[in-house]
Amino acid sequence: MATQAQIQKGYIDYVLTHNEQPKSVYTFVKKLKITEADFYAFYASFDSIEKNIWFELTLTAIEEVEKQELWAQYSSREKMLSFFYCYIELLKGSRSFVIYSLRKQPLKLGTPAVLSGVKPIFENFATQLIEEGLETGELADRKFFSKRYKDALWVQYAFILNFWIDDDSKGFEKTDEAIEKGIQVTFDLFQRSPIDNLFEYGKFLSQNGKLKEKMGF
Q1: Would you say 105 and 113 are in contact if contact means Cβ atoms under 8 Å apart?
Q2: Closest CA relative to residue 88, chosen from 181, 182, 149, 157
C-alpha cells in the first residue's frame, strides 16, 4: 500500500525532472509501482497533490512558530515577522518545487490555484494575530477597515513569496530585508496615527456642536 508521502515525493521528482506533470495517473502509478486505487485513496488529481504540499508547508510553519518559547510574549507584529522568517526558511528546502509550482500558473488576477488551500489557513492565522493586537491596543480598531487588515497581510504574503523566488542575493538576504520592511510598514498602517486622532477630534466637535454655539464662535 502506497503512502501519501511516497506519492508526493514521486510527484515532486517527476515534475522537477520533466518540468511538467505526468501525462496520466496510469503512467505515474506504473512508474511508482503502485495501483491507481492507491493514488486515488489520497488524491483526486495531480493538482490536488500540489495544493496539499503547499497546505502542509504553510501549516508546518504556523505550528513551528507557535511552539517558540517566547511566542506568547511577542506582539502581533513580532509574531507575523517570525512566521515569515520561519516560512521562507522552510521553503528553502523545497525551492525548486516552489519555483516550478508558482511559475507554471497562468498570469491572472487572484490567488493561484495551488495556493487556494493556503489562503484560508493563512488568513485565519493572520486574523488571530490581528484580534490579539486589537485587544491589547497595539493595533487601531477602525470601523470597516479593521476587517480588511487580513487582506493587507495576504498581499504581503504574495509579495514576499514572489520576491523570494526571484531573489538571487547571497543567503536570500534581500528577502529578509523585504520581510522586515514590508511587515513593519503594514503594521505601522494598522497602528493608531495622527490621522486617527484628527478623525476622533472631528467626531468630538460634531457631537458637541452646542458647545461651539454657547461660546459664541
Answers
A1: yes
A2: 157
| Mean pLDDT (whole number) for 46-68 | 97
Q: 13-39, pLDDT tens digit by residue?
A: 999 999 999 999 999 999 999 999 999
Residues 193 and 147 in one domain: yes
Distances (CA, A) of 189 to 68, 69, 140: 27, 28, 9
Q: How many domains does the chain have?
A: 2
Same domain, 124 and 173: yes
* 1 and 85 in a common domain: no
Query: Is 77:176 a contact under the CB 8 Å cutoff?
Result: no
The helix/strand/coil state of 208 is: coil
pLDDT at 197 over 60: no
Percent of the chain with pLDDT over 70: 85
Q: Do residue 31 and residue 57 come from a single domain?
A: no
Provide the whole-model pTM. 0.86
Q: Which domain holds residue 119?
A: 50-201
Q: How far apart are CA 173 and CA 90, in angstroms?
A: 15
From CA 61, how far away is CA 84, in angstroms rounded? 8
